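Propose amino acids for all 252 sites.
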């Protein structure tokens, strides 16, 4: 079975390209019945309200929720993370429908508007321990959300320090660091809960494939191994532990 990539809007082509670099086939998903042909799914970044309207138009939400409930691995990046959250705030008037399943509260545009998009090196100890490579990952945050609160079953994989005077929300999940003259609060930007993975940034826009490798191993853990659950792409490097490349341009 191949890895599905929800292809309604956003950076689905970039995810498919990242999977191909790892020797894995990504399949574009636009209709509910196509979910029967994949064992795992990536919900890409994009404009979350637009994606939700398109998903509703194609009657995808019931199938997506069933996919999650069946325990199949799902990874949401940026807008995809919003989709997976049980609760989202900071939405446009009228809100948007969510898939849910991830026990957390998301702020939809925590880091601001499109012109406030940025890149930053974030500490990723869990990713580095499982996939090797540096202790940091270059996070590309484009009109990005953030995780405000998490449930007891949610594992925090990465956080990002924000000056306290710029924090839009405060909760017990936000830690204050008093070491600097300007206090900072760590906001959550990557989480995992069982079969669900969420990142507020865009790994698909970088040359570092470790997050994709991490997710593929989640997918293989559900099935009986790579030979039965993941389709290899002929001629591509199928190694899931290749070192990060730095020659691919990313958002500046």
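Proposal:
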């Amino acid at each position: 079975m191949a890895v599905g990539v929800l292809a309604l809007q956003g950076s689905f082509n970039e995810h498919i390209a990242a999977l191909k670099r790892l020797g894995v086939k990504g399949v574009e998903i636009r209709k509910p019945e196509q979910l029967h042909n994949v064992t795992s799914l990536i919900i890409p970044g994009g404009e979350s309200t637009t994606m939700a309207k398109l998903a509703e138009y194609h009657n995808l939400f019931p199938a997506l929720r069933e996919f999650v409930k069946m325990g199949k691995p799902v990874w949401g990046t940026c807008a995809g993370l919003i989709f997976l959250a049980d609760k989202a705030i900071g939405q446009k008037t009228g809100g948007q429908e969510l898939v849910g399943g991830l026990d957390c509260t998301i702020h939809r545009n925590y880091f601001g508007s499109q012109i406030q998009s940025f890149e930053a090196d974030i500490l990723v100890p869990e990713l580095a321990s499982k996939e090797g490579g540096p202790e940091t990952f270059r996070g590309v945050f484009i009109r990005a959300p953030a995780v405000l609160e998490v449930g007891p079953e949610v594992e925090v994989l990465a956080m990002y320090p924000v000056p306290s005077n710029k924090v839009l929300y405060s909760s017990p999940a936000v830690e204050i660091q008093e070491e600097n003259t300007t206090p900072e609060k760590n906001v959550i930007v990557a989480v995992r809960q069982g079969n669900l993975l969420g990142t507020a940034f865009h790994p698909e826009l970088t040359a570092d494939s470790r997050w994709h490798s991490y997710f593929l191993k989640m997918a293989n853990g559900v099935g009986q191994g790579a030979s039965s659950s993941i389709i290899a792409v002929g001629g591509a490097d199928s190694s899931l532990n290749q070192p990060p490349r730095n020659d691919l341009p990313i958002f500046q």
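The CA atoms of residues 117 and 210 lie 22 Å apart. The chain has one domain: 2-161+187-229.
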